[in-house]
Amino acid sequence: MLPPRLLLSVACCLMVFAGLGVGQTPPLAQSIDQAIAQDEPRVPTLASSPCDDLTFLRRVHLDLVGGLPSAEEARAFAADKAPGKRLKQIDRLLASADHAWHWSRVLDAWWMERRPAKNVEAKAWTEWLRDGLAKNQPLDAMVRDILTVDGTDEKTRAAARFVLDREMDNHLLVRDISRLFLGANLQCAQCHDHPRIEDYKQEHYHGLLAYYQRTYLFDDPKLKKKVLAEKAEGEVEFQSVFDKAKTTRKRAPGVPGGSERPDPMLAKDQLYISAPTKEARGVPKHSRRLLLAKDLTEGRALARNFANRFWAQVMGKGIVHPMDQIHVDNPASHPALLDTLTEGLLAAKYDHRTLLRAICASGAYQRGGDAKAGQPKDAEDRLLVARLRPLGPEQMGDALVFATGFMDAERKALGAKATPEALLPKLEGQAAPFVNMLAAPAGNPDQFEARLDQALFLANHGHLQGLLNARTGNLMDTVLKEKDAARAAETIYLTVFTRLPSAEEKSEVARVLGAQDKQAALRDLLWALLGSAEFRFVG
Questions:
Q1: Angle 97-98-101 (CA atoms, 0-180°, nearest 5)?
Q2: Can you give the pTM of this predicted structure?
């Protein structure tokens, strides 16, 4: 029987996978592999064989729900001989509460880059993300909410965190909107056309700036909170520092590659719904800020950016890399693939589950990590072999909590009350110290960096020691109670690495369990396994 965290809700399945039979290969997954073969003709002869079942199980758990499968899940999956079991596993994970929980933290790290909460509670923001993902809210609708909510309504205020916690710094907003939603970092085009990237123009930067030029933070005396307000006047003017004539140009709002969006003609007495005063925030009849949400979500660039980012999240590297450098001089490694993913996301109306389902069901995602004779040095980049990639901070934190059996112990302790709502906050709380240690500094995108302080933390910190203490239902307790050393070794390696142990590893476990102080010896073994490179990477 599957654990409660993987039980499918019929209603959720009908909502998420309407029109797709369980076990049926998604057409988009087939298109992904066809596009890769179009971009890389050597796929039929040089691509590595598919990964084994347990490698796939570990990989897809980490990518879709952040944690690891249990030893029981691994045994059941390995024993299942049904031909469509991999797609069924993908569907189970996508429909689980764990998926919305994990991916809310992924989107939070993408969009807020671990900034401290200033004007909106971080918990409210992540709960808003989680609720949207659980309800399968389209990604473009989430972006619209982020850019249009003004913070005055407590029910929707959480969505305004993207803007409010950047303190309405319009230059910071231009930089981050261009990077995170369009995949084009326009920061270096503020004072002149980008010196090295032909596609990034100064007018593009100021076209985005014009959307927010009239918006300001307003300390609402009634709500006693900062909210967004907007004026009906104010134009963007700029000069290039390289222009000796110092020509001043004006720019109306407009997304890069799109046309300018002039204001409608309104009489002065018709400009405002609510004119700005010291006591009241300004609300114009024509909002440039709201216009941005429309222009951004109606273009193709947003879908292309999401396609690239989702691919990078589960494949280890974007089709365009770096992800915020989409331009003609930094072409996609697989142009047909990027087009296929973009069109697939648009056809699915920004349904993130459809995109993830197709990627994880593709042959490219399920490629093995063993090199094949004749593969080029850039085989990983050519998608001929699985990329060995580090776990993200949340993945690593969750994996440590799952591997030590903390969640199994909590499930036993709570009994009938072991619902996702009760369990998942405990998971996040236990994983937090690891996430904080492994994550990038606030305001920076996460990039893998193996540092000495991280190694020392994993080797010495009491938090991991505490998770290794024997407790009813956890890994230490389960192994200590196991009378068969071979079965104990299997449980350890399936739980920690989602693979079976070698003969040498079985012998080592038998030696450990035969030690005079077997609990101390077992602690040392588990500690070594959890701190290993094999645990920290997925292939």
A1: 90
A2: 0.93
* Closest among 336, 383, 367, 361 to 30, alpha carbons compared: 361
Say if strands 249-251 and 272-274 run parallel, antiparallel, or are unpaired.
unpaired
d(CA 183, CA 536): 28
- The span from the CA of 397 to the CA of 433, in Å, is 8
Pick from 96, 16, 30, 32: which is nearest to 315 by CA?
A: 32
Burial profile 328-363: b = 16 or more Cβ within 10 angstroms, e = fewer: eeeebbbebbbbbbbbbbbebebbbbbbbbbbbbbb
Q: How many CB atoms lie within 10 A of CB 470?
A: 17
Could you tell me whether strands 215-220 and 225-230 are parallel, antiparallel, or unpaired per DSSP bridges? antiparallel
What pLDDT digit, counting tens, does each position of 266-313 carry? 999 999 999 999 999 999 999 999 999 999 999 899 999 999 999 999
Residue among 111, 119, 147 nearest 218 (CA): 119
Angle at CA of residue 384, ends 378 and 390, nearest 5°:
70
Residue matched to tokens 């593709």: 362
Tens-place pLDDT, residues 224-233: 999 999 999 9
Average model confidence (pLDDT) across the chain? 93
Placement of tokens 């654990």 in the chain: 3
How confident is the model over 364-422, as pLDDT tens digits?
Answer: 999 999 999 999 999 999 999 999 999 999 999 999 999 999 999 999 999 999 999 99
